[in-house]
C-alpha cells in the first residue's frame, strides 16, 4: 500500500515539538518531495495558466498582456488550485471574447491597480520556447497580444523566423487582424 500526503507544514519540526505523532511521520517520510509554493515559482504561473486553458478550452482562449501581468503579480496563497479557479472563472466570464482580460479575473487578482496603457508587458521572453517545441495556440495568441499583433516582433521574441510563425498561426487558425483589432479596445 502506498500513501501520498501533502501538507504546508514542517512535519519534522512538528514531531520535535510534540505536535505530530513520530510513528506516523516515520511511515509518511519515506520520500519527501518539497514543492515550493507558486509565489516562489513565478516563472511557472503563465505556463500553468496556458495548461489550464489548453486542457479545458483547447487553446481557443488567450491571456491579454495585462491579465498575464495581473496573474504574475498575485501571491497565490492557495497555490495551483487558486490559479485553476481564477482561469476557469475568467474563461466563463469571457462570453465569446477570445482574450481573458483583467476584468474577467476574480477581483482579488484582476483589480491590482495596473496601469491602463503604456508600458507593453512581455509575457514570453526571448528563448523561452524550448528548442524543437511548438507553442500552444493560447501561447501564440498571448504572445501576439503582448506584441500588439506585430508578427515580426513576436517571431523575434520566439527566436524564430516570421514564416515559421505564420505556419503556426495557420495551423491554429489564429486571425492576426482580429488580434490587432482587439488591441484597440481597452482591457
Question: What's this model, at a glance?
Answer:
Helix content is 50%, strand content 2%. It has 187 residues and is an all-alpha fold.
Query: Which radius of gyration do the C-alpha atoms yield?
Result: 20 Å
* Neighbour order of strands in the largest sheet: 1-2
- The average pLDDT score comes to 80
Poorly predicted tracts of residues = 115-127
The CATH class of the largest domain turns out to be Mainly Alpha
Oligomer: single chain
Order of helices and strands: HHHEHHEHHHHH
Q: Which structural class do you get from the secondary structure elements?
A: mainly alpha
Taken as a percent bin, the fraction of beta residues is: under 5%
- Tell me the distance between the termini: 51 Å
Work out the count of structural domains: 2
CATH T-level topology of the largest domain: Helicase, Ruva Protein, domain 3
Give a short account of the largest sheet. Answer: 2 strands, parallel
Walkthrough of the structure:
It is built from 10 helices and 2 strands; from the N terminus they run H-H-H-E-H-H-E-H-H-H-H-H. The protein has 187 residues and is mainly alpha-helical. It has 2 domains: 1-34, no CATH class; 39-184, Orthogonal Bundle (Helicase, Ruva Protein, domain 3).
Topology overview:
Elements: H1 11-16, H2 22-28, H3 42-57, E1 62-63, H4 65-73, H5 79-93, E2 99-100, H6 107-110, H7 137-146, H8 151-158, H9 162-171, H10 176-184
Parallel strand pairs: 1-2
Helix pairs in contact: 3-5, 7-8, 8-9
Amino acid at each position: 500500500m502506498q500513501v501520498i500526503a501533502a501538507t504546508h507544514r514542517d512535519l519534522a519540526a512538528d514531531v520535535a515539538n510534540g505536535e505530530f505523532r513520530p510513528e506516523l511521520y516515520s511511515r509518511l517520510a519515506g520520500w519527501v518531495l518539497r514543492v515550493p509554493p507558486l509565489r516562489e515559482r513565478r516563472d511557472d504561473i503563465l505556463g500553468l495558466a496556458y495548461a489550464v486553458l489548453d486542457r479545458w478550452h483547447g487553446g481557443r482562449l488567450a491571456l491579454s498582456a495585462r491579465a498575464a501581468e495581473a496573474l504574475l503579480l498575485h501571491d497565490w496563497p492557495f497555490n495551483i488550485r487558486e490559479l485553476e479557479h481564477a482561469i476557469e472563472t475568467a474563461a466563463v466570464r469571457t462570453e465569446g471574447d477570445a482574450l481573458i482580460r483583467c476584468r474577467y479575473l476574480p477581483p482579488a487578482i484582476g483589480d491590482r491597480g495596473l496601469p491602463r496603457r503604456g508600458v507593453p508587458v512581455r509575457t514570453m521572453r526571448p528563448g523561452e520556447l524550448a528548442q524543437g517545441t511548438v507553442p500552444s495556440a493560447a501561447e501564440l495568441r498571448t504572445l501576439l497580444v503582448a506584441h500588439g499583433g506585430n508578427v515580426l516582433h513576436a517571431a523575434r521574441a520566439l527566436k524564430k523566423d516570421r514564416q515559421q510563425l505564420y505556419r503556426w498561426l495557420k495551423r491554429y487558425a489564429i486571425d492576426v487582424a482580429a488580434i490587432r483589432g482587439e488591441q484597440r479596445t481597452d482591457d
